[in-house]
Structure formats: C-alpha cells, structure tokens
Specification:
1 helix, four-stranded antiparallel sheet, globular, mainly beta, disordered N terminus, five-stranded antiparallel sheet, 179 residues
C-alpha cells in the first residue's frame, strides 16, 4: 500500500524521555507507569516569570494536580526542554493546596507557601541546568499546584511536563498561564 508523504519543512521538537520510571523509597520499589505528558512553553511578556525570587514568578504556567487515593502515592515528575535548543536552567515547585484555596496561585501566596513545597524522596528541591529536571516524590492525596520555571524572567522555551504514578493522577485541563 502506498502511503503519501509530506515534505517536512520544519525540524520537529525532540525531547529526551527519562527511561527509568521506577524508584525505591524506604525499601519498596515503585513503578510509575501511569504517565501523563503536557506540552507547553514560556513566552516573553506572557508567562515567562522566572524563578521564585522574581516578582513575576506567579505568571509562569501552573498545573493543578489531583492526587487520588487514601494513602501517599509515588509520583515521578519530569520537566524536559527540546534537545535541539541551547539548554537553560529550569526547575519546578509543587505547592500543596490548602482547603478552599483556588488556583492559580498569586505571587503573595507563592512566596508565603514556598516553605511548604514538596521535597523529593532525597529531601531536595528541583532546579538544574540540563535538558531534564526530574524527581520522585511520595505524595499524600489532595490537590497541588505545580509551577515549572526558568532561571530568569523573559526566557522563552518550549517544554514537556511528564507525570508518572501507579494510581490515577490527573493534570487539570484548567491549566493557568499557558499558551
């Protein structure tokens, strides 16, 4: 069967996917193979807010996570940038949402609640200069706001945000500050 081909006029965006979706925590091995990926970008003047020390941090894209279940669940998070572009420093913060708190987070809330952001299973926050920032978490059921960010305000870059878990975890389609 003949398959018609189209002329490729643009280089496709290529992301490197982290191969290891398993991690061990407190001597238990978890396989986070229930995966969701969202593609978006930071755009100067729109949603490129930079890191949390910047007054524009809350303008970054924000994703509402709904973690289901009765007990803490393993969560794998990976933030990737295209490999055919120059690397820029990037990271993400995961804010637990308080009862009745609405998304998106404003700057005052982000600054006051930064101390409550989730730390990964090694007790670290995620901010790296590489093509992928990834971390593993044990997360209590509830609502969380995940904010990916770059180092400086106004940095433009496409990104892919991947979440993996063993249970149902959804990224709200009511994402905020996205393009």
């Amino acid at each position: 069967v003949d398959v018609p081909c189209e002329l490729v006029t643009e280089m496709p965006v290529l992301y490197i996917r982290r191969e290891e979706l398993e991690f061990e925590y407190e001597s238990i091995r978890y396989n986070c193979n229930n995966i969701t990926t969202v593609f978006n970008q930071w755009k100067k003047g729109v949603n490129a807010g930079g890191q949390i020390g910047n007054k524009t941090f809350a303008k970054n894209p924000q994703f509402l996570l709904d973690i289901a279940g009765d007990d803490p669940v393993p969560l794998f998070v990976s933030l990737k940038q295209p490999v055919n572009d120059p690397r820029i420093p990037l990271g993400f913060k995961i804010f637990p949402m308080k009862d009745g708190q609405a998304a998106p987070l404003d700057l005052r809330t982000a600054w006051s609640d930064a101390q409550y952001c989730l730390l990964d299973t090694n007790g670290r926050s995620v901010f790296v200069i590489t093509y992928e920032a990834g971390a593993n978490y044990m997360v209590a059921p509830g609502l969380y706001t995940l904010i990916p960010f770059t180092d400086k305000t106004g940095m433009e870059k496409q990104f892919a945000l991947t979440l993996g878990t063993i249970q149902g975890c959804s990224i709200s389609h009511q994402a905020f500050n996205t393009v």
